[in-house]
Design a protein that fits this description.
The protein is mainly alpha-helical. The chain contains 21 helices and no strands.
């Protein structure tokens, strides 16, 4: 009996080993697909990444990391509802996976669900207080919510936790720039470039920040460095063109914007910037065509409807101008210049009630020329009752 017992026990042990070894191999194979997926994402091959994550889940449906990485890939494709489902599946398997919480937060942000996003990022930070990416993402969500102080605090924490992590420095720079704190913004962008000198978009950010300070030589230098690093980025050329435009160097500006459009004919900002330079040179038809092309590519690009309205006004096409000013005000109701110029165009057409409506809006927004237009209107018409 003793020998039989030993033989039986031996057989059971062998059976257990036989069953565990394939499971371990399967787990390794699934994780290898996840690893390949990450490589494909870094290469911009999102569809290939999705296929790898799906293969991982065919092998191991309970691999939480594969679910949340699949969700992140869906977000890159704009499939945010599917992304949220995958992150939730990951968390049903492993509720303590901080990465899934912060990825879920990002998916909520894409859907405009900021409160839910903040809660998800906070949960990630709670689970892993040393998780720099979660602090960074929480900071960005706070910024979108208008909680600037909390945003800065989280981004600073992220930068401290991971000295080689450049994203928090870039994001801090963007917040500082929006706040008008240009010196602080420049310092953050420079720190990001110390970490990674290949960040061409940060050279763009620096160029814009320096140009806002009127430091055009420094702006040109940074943008030229970006071009040296990667000569095929259209955005850098059109930003350099704007630096020339701000200095009145219109031919140089036009050349840079054209170069940008050679590299990327679908870049709405380059069309808009080129149109601005044409308008400044008095080439109004070229300007109008450029602004219209920018709008075709992105109807919500800031100020393009307004600038198209100005170009139409200068050509005497007042109906078209009024229409563009109205479109601008749908996007930016507080644009005092658009209200005032719409009022002027309406006055010139004899549409006095419309002119009164918008000049009073310009006055409420404290436009310095509103009083002058009101005086002109008073000479030709009586203000309608409010």
């Amino acid at each position: 009996m003793r020998n039989l017992n030993r033989r039986g026990r031996f057989c059971i042990i062998c059976l257990c080993i036989f069953m565990v070894m394939p499971t371990v191999a399967m787990g390794q194979e699934a994780r290898e697909h996840v690893r390949r997926g990450l490589v494909f994402v870094r290469q911009g091959l999102v569809d290939s990444a999705i296929e790898e994550y799906k293969k991982a889940l065919e092998i191991d449906p309970n691999l939480a990391l594969a679910h949340t990485n699949l969700g992140a890939a869906y977000d890159l494709k704009g499939l945010h509802d599917q992304a949220i489902e995958e992150h939730k599946r990951a968390l049903s398997i492993n509720p303590n996976l901080a990465l899934a919480h912060t990825y879920l937060g990002l998916s909520y942000e894409y859907r405009g669900m900021l409160d839910e996003a903040i809660a998800a990022h906070r949960k990630a930070v709670e689970l892993r207080p040393d998780f720099a990416m979660a602090h960074n993402n929480l900071g960005l969500a706070y910024a979108k919510k208008g909680l600037i102080g909390q945003a800065i605090e989280e981004l600073k924490t992220a930068a401290t936790l991971s000295p080689e992590y450049y994203d928090p420095h870039i994001n801090l720079g963007s917040i500082y720039e929006q706040q008008g704190l240009l010196d602080e913004a420049i310092a953050c962008y420079q720190k990001a470039l110390e970490i990674n000198p290949e960040l061409v978009l940060v050279y763009n950010n620096l160029g814009i920040a320096y140009s806002k300070k009127g430091m055009f030589k420094e702006a040109e230098e940074r943008l030229q460095k970006g071009i040296e690093r990667q000569p095929n980025i259209a955005l850098t050329y059109t930003n350099l063109g704007m630096v020339y435009y701000l200095q009145g160097k219109l031919d140089e500006a036009i050349a840079q914007h054209r170069k940008a459009l050679e590299l990327n004919p679908e870049l709405p900002l380059a069309h808009s910037n080129l149109a601005l330079a044409y308008a400044q040179k008095g080439q109004l038809q070229e300007a109008i065509e450029g602004f219209k092309r920018a709008i075709d590519l992105n109807p919500r690009l800031p100020m393009v409807h307004y600038n198209l309205g100005l170009a139409y006004s200068q050509k005497g096409l007042l109906n078209e101008a009024i229409e563009e000013y109205r479109k601008e005000l749908q996007l930016a109701p507080q644009n005092a210049d658009a209200h005032l110029n719409l009022a002027v165009a309406a006055y010139l057409q004899g549409k006095y009630d419309l002119a009164w409506t918008h000049v009073r809006q310009a006055e409420r927004l404290q436009h310095p020329k509103a009083a002058q237009i009101i005086d002109i209107l008073k000479k030709v018409s009586q203000e309608p009752p409010s």
